[in-house]
Amino acid sequence: MIKNCLILFMLLLAIAHAVPYAQDILEEEWMAFKLEYNKVYQDETEEQLRFKIFNYNKLLIARHNLKWAAGKVSFNLAVNKFADLLDHEFQDLMLGKMSPSGSNFGSSTFLPPVNLTLPDAVDWRKYGFVTPVKDQGSCGSCWAFSTTGSLEGQHFRKTGQLISLSEQNLIDCSPGNNGCKNGAVEYAFRYIQSNKGIDTEISYPYEAAQNQCRFRRDTIGATSTGFVKLNPGDEMELAQAVATVGPISVLINSSLDSFKFYHDGVYNDPSCNPNKLTHAVLVVGYGTDDRGGDFWLVKNSWSTHWGEQGYVKIKRNANNLCGIASNALYPLV
After folding, report:
1. Which end of the chain is more exposed for a tag (fewer CB within 10 A), N or C?
2. Is 142 a catalytic residue?
3. Same domain, 30 and 64
4. How far apart are CA 115 and CA 71, in angstroms?
5. What is the pLDDT along the chain (333 residues), one digit of tens a residue?
6. Are residues 184 and 261 in the same domain?
């Protein structure tokens, strides 16, 4: 009896000591997070709020990763620079209602090669079509990054030169778009066509804010003669275009927590509504994963600290998951 009471006392003592240690661990993780992402808050009140949000998101991530460890899901999550934001703050800061422009005016029809046999996998990064992952920062300019990404690929295909193009040129100068609020890739392609070019990244660097148009004709990096729009929702046609043309601009639904904190694996969240398009990205290939099955290889513009060094694998042949084939297009050069 005495022995049992002694064991119980020791357990209670260990628990009492573990509680402050657990708090210490949380605070150390918080400090590391702030240092890694250069987070600074206006006062102690805001810091406490951000700390609570951070811990809530950590719990959400941990619960998902238990399913990953048990083999119940095909992707895992991780803390990233969005972990101190409320959901509506993330939506306002990074996303928009990325609907198509509503018109196919100026677009051409995609015609796949006759008797095309699709390769099992495609990755245009291996062939020099894709610039390094960029960072849109605190600006809803994903549409501009998707536009430059697809044009960079097509310009390389034609000339053999991979030139990083200016998103800032599009943000400042592209009619019909709303800078850091939202935009349509179609409008951006039309601007490049009518403007007879877009400046290079070096000559017109990114500022993550809309300013006056400072386009210079003597620093053009690429031109375009129009664009091709694929059949909405047709994943087979998207695969044909990716395999034969190169990187393709697409819109997706990226509003879920599971996407916000995606780390690696094949993203396959059944609740990712294909009719809610919030984010423009770039499909640079496709393939098949042993654990997650068929996927699209997608370049994002949230820096290399997000996802798989800035990339995400989105489930392919899954009823147009996240709307990845709903608005797909590429420029003509």
Report:
1. N
2. yes
3. yes
4. 39
5. 555 555 554 555 454 555 555 677 788 999 999 999 999 999 999 999 999 999 999 999 999 999 999 999 999 999 999 999 999 899 888 875 555 545 555 578 888 888 889 999 999 999 999 999 999 999 999 999 999 999 999 999 999 999 999 999 999 999 999 999 989 999 999 999 999 999 999 999 999 999 999 999 999 999 999 999 999 999 999 999 999 999 999 999 999 999 999 999 999 999 999 999 999 999 999 999 999 999 999 999 999 999 999 999 999 999 999 999 999 999 999
6. yes
Q: Which domain holds residue 48?
A: 1-75
Return d(Cα 169, Cα 101) in angstroms, integer.
Answer: 19
Catalytic, out of 268, 279, 322, 327: 279
**How far is CA 94 from each of CA 105, 139, 289, rounded to the nearest angstrom?**
28, 6, 29
Q: Which of 57, 80, 253, 300 is catalytic?
A: 300
Helices (H), 70-130: 87-94
Give SS3 for 163.
coil
Catalytic status, residue 65? no
Q: Looking at the structure, do residues 64 and 137 belong to the same domain, yes or no?
A: no
Please give the Cα distance from 239 to 15 (Å, whole number).
Answer: 56
Q: Which residues contact 179 (CB under 8 A, 6 or more apart)?
A: 139, 141, 171, 172, 209, 210
The answer to whether 146 touches 185, Cβ cutoff 8 Å, is yes
Is 300 an active-site residue?
A: yes
Q: What is the CATH number of the domain that holds 251?
A: 3.90.70.10
